[in-house]
Amino acid sequence: MDPMEGNGQEFERKMEEGLEAVEVTSDASKPIVAHVFKVTADPFIGKLGVFRIFQGTVKKESQLHIGDEKKTFKVGHLLSLQGKEHTEVDAGIPGDICAVAKIDEIRFDAVLRDKIDGGDVRLQPMNFPKPMNGFAIEAKSRGDEQKIGKALTSMEAEDPCFSVERNGTTHETVIYGLGDMHLRVILKKMKNRYNVEVDTHPPKIAYRETITGNAEGHHRHKKQTGGAGQFGEVFLRISPVERGGGFEFANNLFGGSIPRQYVPAVEKGIRLVMEHGAIAGYPLQDIKVSVYDGKHHPVDSKEVAFVMASKKAFIDAIHKAKPVILEPVVHMDIIVPEGNMGDIAGDLSSKRGRLQGSDTLPGGMLHISAQAPLAELGQYQSQLKAVTAGQGSYTMQLSHYEPVPPNVQQQIIDQYKPKAEEDS
Q1: pLDDT band at 43, cuts 50/70/90?
Q2: Hey, which bits of 162-312 come out as E strands?
Q3: Candidates 2.40.30.10, 1.10.10.10, 3.40.50.150, 3.40.50.720; correct CATH number of 14-123?
Q4: Which end of the chain has the smaller Cβ count within 10 Å, N or C?
Q5: Fold of the domain spanning 133-201
Q6: 54-88 tens-digit pLDDT
Q7: Minimal CA–CA distance to 321: which of 283, 373, 294, 284?
């Protein structure tokens, strides 16, 4: 049987001017072309890269390139796979399923070659479902963080429908898969292979804070404890900048009201508030801060005093500047049977979502474009399956941030109050 038979995909080469087809034949005498279709971690032999040989002969001691990398790896032990059995062989020819172990650089979907002749050769891209369902995870046992990191890296290398995100805003590690069952299977593998267990919970929403008005803030930091004291006073103005404008700091001091060496401390205090928030504990964005006056003491003024003074002055101004909480809004592409259009529209409306359009697809299916707040979509996958009898699917990606409704903002602020009191 021709080893190329039944292969619906073709190889292509990425060139500067675009993609070009690459002819690959089942000739064992030609240069090697093999495709890595699976990467797994074997508890006994380590990382295992499983590949199908399309052209050429892979032997022990063969020097192979991964993709277009100039560096090669040497095939030490060549394994032939039949089910769960690993048998060491001397060579593999077109049509054979083989594997190499303990090659850290090997990756899923890579093309292995013994000669690089310009351009990155690859199979035409495969379309995998995008992982949408997410859990936030944390180690059950303190000290397991490093083991968890290694386990997640291994799982991500094995499964193209699994991804890991370390959210810098919420400081959570979030894993994404195709559903609860998919993620539970991965967590079970982690426990069995790496002896690590994790607690899971819904991911936090990466809200932001900003202001909608202009305001001034002032704070005098004065502390006397018997020895050297602390003194710093800061006056500042704040104003909103256009969405996406980030943070602007302006030094409008004059006359030495705050000595030059303390200006970085003033900016540091402001940046600390930008990072940690002022009304609900979320990062601030799109604000211009202008420091225009202050006072210092020749003995008691020091860096920490101006950090504290600018923090409190900035928070004072934010509370006067009509602050709002911004929430992430995602664009959704939803595929459902045509008969479910009304159910989907009603459900999205209940989630503060907005329909943007729909298109008819073959087979009685419908493509719906919509936008909705991410905070409302925590259980959307299971809800969509229930409404469509398992026939519906969706993908989403971040579209923009917009202010939450006033009642939602108050709920978020109320949830933050205990921490605010603790920090004050």
Answers
A1: low
A2: 163-167, 172-177, 198-201, 208-211, 215-223, 230-240, 247-251, 287-295
A3: 2.40.30.10
A4: C
A5: Alpha-Beta Plaits (3.30.70)
A6: 999 999 889 998 887 888 899 988 999 877 788 89
A7: 284
